[in-house]
Amino acid sequence: MLTIAHLSDIHLGQDHRRDRGTRARRRAERVMAYLDALPGSLDAVLVTGDLADHGLPAEYEQVAEVLKSRHRVLICPGNHDSRAPYREVLLGEGPGESPINRLHQLPGADVLMLDSSIPGRPDGLLDEETLTWLDAELAGGRTELPALVAFHHPPVELSVPTVDGIRQFGEAGLARVLRRHPRVAALLCGHSHTPAATTFAGLPLLVAPGVVSTVTLPCEGGPGISLTHPPMLAFHVLDGDRRLTTHYRVVPEN
Ligand SMILES: [Fe+2]
Ligand SMILES: [Fe+2]
To answer: Which ligand lies nearest the alpha carbon of 153?
Structure first.
């Protein structure tokens, strides 16, 4: 059994009413403090993109500080991120503009974190390089184990007009790769700033809430962005039958 915490869209550096990013940082720190104080252990904490708000090196310095944890933290970029400073500050690598895709081998499962960002654009795409990499990683290595595939942009509409227009497009390519690999148990994403559950390519697609804000539905008077909803996260539990169960949590005040 595997237990993973999943948060997204911390947007460090987002300047709300000229607060110089203190609100975004406070909310991310509240979530990370909650996870660090858990009496039990986690196999990983996933953060599915929009780590920085403007993709600035100074914002990534903050990301590195805030995401320090007693747990193993796995990240991928979102549309607000910028590949070169992300690589330099968070990964300690030289500046490069190719997609940032990573395989993480957890006890009992592989987690593949993909880069769905398109430099300079709010919508998303898993390009050919990324899909080829995903196909090869799923085919090689620990094929007897289940795999979780994570990225920033959802590849389907979520009935939230503002988000649906900037979702992940070109999704047929992803579906083709996923159908070749029955070891994939579920898909995880962020970007939409709303806790949601749906399906893609016959697989569960779990959307993490946005830590910095919540996007509201038409029935709530939206689409709009709520800054008053408290930060939330998801706990995903992968059981011995390769079934993923998700529990969403409001993170209490410290
Ligand atoms: Fe976001
Ligand atoms: Fe985003």
So the answer is: 2
**Which residues, at least 6 apart from 86, have a Cβ–Cβ distance to it below 8 Å?**
51, 52, 55, 60, 77, 100
CA–centroid distance, 171 to ligand 1, in Å, is 20
**pLDDT score recorded for residue 127:** 98
Residue 16 is predicted with a pLDDT of 84
pLDDT of residue 12: 98
**According to DSSP H, which parts of the chain are helical?**
22-36, 57-66, 83-85, 128-139, 161-164, 171-179
User: What are 137-173's pLDDT values in tens digits?
Assistant: 999 989 999 999 999 999 999 999 889 999 999 999 9
Task: Give all domains of the chain, ordered by start, each with its CATH number.
Answer: 2-250 (3.60.21.10)
Ligand 2 center to 221 CA (angstroms): 22
Taking a 5 Å cut-off on Cβ, the residues next to ion ligand 1 are 9, 50
At residue 253, the pLDDT reads 86
Residue in this structure with the two tokens 């899909």, named with its chain if needed: 131
Indicate the helix (H) or strand (E) that contains 147. Answer: strand 147-150
User: DSSP letters of 175-230?
Assistant: HHHHHT-TTEEEEEE-SSSS-EEEEETTEEEEEPPBSS-EEEPGGGT-SEEESSSP
| Segments in the chain below pLDDT 50 | none
Distance 18 CA to ligand 2 centre (A): 21
Distance from the alpha carbon of residue 239 to the mean position of ligand 1, in angstroms: 29
For ligand 1, the distance from its centroid to the CA atom of residue 50, given in whole angstroms, is 5
